[in-house]
């Protein structure tokens, strides 16, 4: 399951994993929202309300995760304000649902309040 994340001039491909959380997000697409930034993370509310599935306290650069307290999808491209040395730490545990294909650091250009769209990638794109 591959999706496009489009925000401002940035377009990224994301490969969703085989968690039931990722499947539920896939079923909900397309999603449009307003993006927020927090350190080297963007996040936005999505119309999915699920409990944690395999919660993780730290993530890797390029990870895409669902954050249950905010019903939000998060994309990590570097340290957050609560990260320790050499780690990427979400505000609280998240369920990793996918990974950015390519360079996630292009998200540094994204600003609070920009519109974001998450859409299915068709196989012939």
Automatic annotation (TrEMBL):
<dbReference type="InterPro" id="IPR029000">
    <property type="entry name" value="Cyclophilin-like_dom_sf"/>
</dbReference>
<protein>
    <recommendedName>
        <fullName>Cyclophilin TM1367-like domain-containing protein</fullName>
    </recommendedName>
</protein>
<dbReference type="InterPro" id="IPR007256">
    <property type="entry name" value="TM1367-like"/>
</dbReference>
<dbReference type="InterPro" id="IPR025658">
    <property type="entry name" value="Cyclophilin_TM1367"/>
</dbReference>
<dbReference type="Pfam" id="PF04126">
    <property type="entry name" value="Cyclophil_like"/>
</dbReference>
<feature type="domain" description="Cyclophilin TM1367-like">
    <location>
        <begin position="2"/>
        <end position="118"/>
    </location>
</feature>
